[in-house]
């Protein structure tokens, strides 16, 4: 187990390093014009531009820049932001944003877990009846319709019918985060409902459930003691990843409701050539993704002792 | 003795027709697929609606009173609610919304179909190689991990900045990053089937690799491939609308759903029709594809055939 954990963590490290390198190289492919603001582009002479680029170390050979970058990453020094909030440590810039994203995301995650699993259970109990069909209709709708459209519908409904604020404001975070949270939960409720239903129905068809019925166990007991417990195991795998992804925020939701979170940061940073921010974000996202899958695997193993991971490298 | 036997048995004339009859089976794969598919009334109705919609989008553009290419901004006509002249009303610049919506629907469908087919082709090819050729497994796994771990938004932003925004660029870049799930799915299935006994036998008999792949393995994958293909259409439409909304997708002069909704974002609280028309049409398209895809992939699974 320990050996396996170390191996997986090393793999994660290698992946993150490769990702960081690729993002670093990709950013160097951008024309240096993006380094300057439009005003600077017009006013500065080519010599001045060259000077500034040199001062920022962008004219050095790529290899040299890359070595310097690795040095910084190893010292966990991610540099300063240039244009997003100029002169502020990247860690601070990201820190102030990620709390906002994480608060919204975690609320949405808790809501969608509770509501989604609940809907899934209701659907299983009323299988092939009207409630089940309504639930399935909801999952199909959310999965098929572009999220931009469903967010717009939520926005129109929420703000015209319920009178909720249509934009996020830091002065009034309570009510103004209701619509973003609803939008964030829409898809994951459907996701959890779908999988809860599928796993529970699979479980219900197994022979040991028939046995439990025959020996006279009540339906309620069968559901709580056997079906739900077993159906929840595969669901657990997704929770860490979804939790970690809340840190990253949702680009679309945050842009749509003007939430000052992590989501739109990456896009903004690339457009404004804020290299340090982009690289740090890429490292964060890559680590979140890989670590999330890993924690999910470990968690599943802890809950269900029959599952063994150490046999093969890849499990899924 | 000898004579008797000759009386009892005699040779029949060779008849091509009779020979055919013994070896004849009524089973044809695609015929069964369609038979199974047609049994599902809801899916049939939905696909009729979809084709109707596509055909109508052409008719709609033809019978509309305004042509997309000749739209003029006229602020005096801004925010006309739907009426006899402007069937879907006008947008914030006073341009006819009817032709914009139908044009956008066509763009979305066209893009989604191209991307889905491209993804399917690239994904299946790479997935087969990845699953079948052992030496390539590590390489493709690494490629998959790396592409999958870098946020798509980095690629899309860089592409928009470096290459520019157009329909072709968009289609190609969506294919470049969209083949991953298909390839992974195909790879896992190929891994499952490649070492079955009948494939071992084929290999021992010297069947070329491509024939093993195409004749022995691919038929098992058809239903999964069709499902992915059908599901990738709604998700491509969604991705395109997201990207266009963020300003990374199609250019502002190519109306697509995302561009329409981005333009309407500030106004549709007061003028909900700016949202409703594109939303309803696009939802119809995506829901239809979702349902039809599911039904068709069930029908395409040879294990469900009688």
* Cα distance spanning the termini of chain A: 18 Å
DSSP strand content of chain B: under 5%
What kind of sheet is the major sheet of chain A? Answer: none
How many H/I helical runs of chain B?
A: 12
Helix- and strand-based class of chain A? mainly alpha
**Strand residue content of chain A:** under 5%
Overall mean pLDDT of chain A stands at 79
Which regions of chain A contain 5 or more consecutive residues with pLDDT less than 50?
311-316
Helix percentage of chain B: over 70%
SSE topology string of chain A? HHHHHHHHHHHHHHH
Radius of gyration of chain A: 24 Å
Task: Explain what this protein looks like in three dimensions.
The complex is a heterodimer of chains A (316) and B (306). Chain A is an all-alpha fold. Chain A has 15 helices and no strands. Chain A has helices at residues 2-29, 38-43, 46-55, 62-74, 90-125, 130-144, 147-161, 173-176, 178-204, 207-214, 219-236, 238-248, 251-256, 265-271, 275-303. Chain A is flat and about 85 Å long. By secondary structure, chain B is mainly α. Chain B has twelve helices and no strands. The radius of gyration of chain B is 27 Å and the shape is flat. Classes of the chains: A mainly alpha (316), B mainly alpha (306). At the A-B interface, helix 1, helix 6, helix 7, helix 13 and helix 14 of A face helix 6, helix 7, helix 10, helix 11 and helix 12 of B.
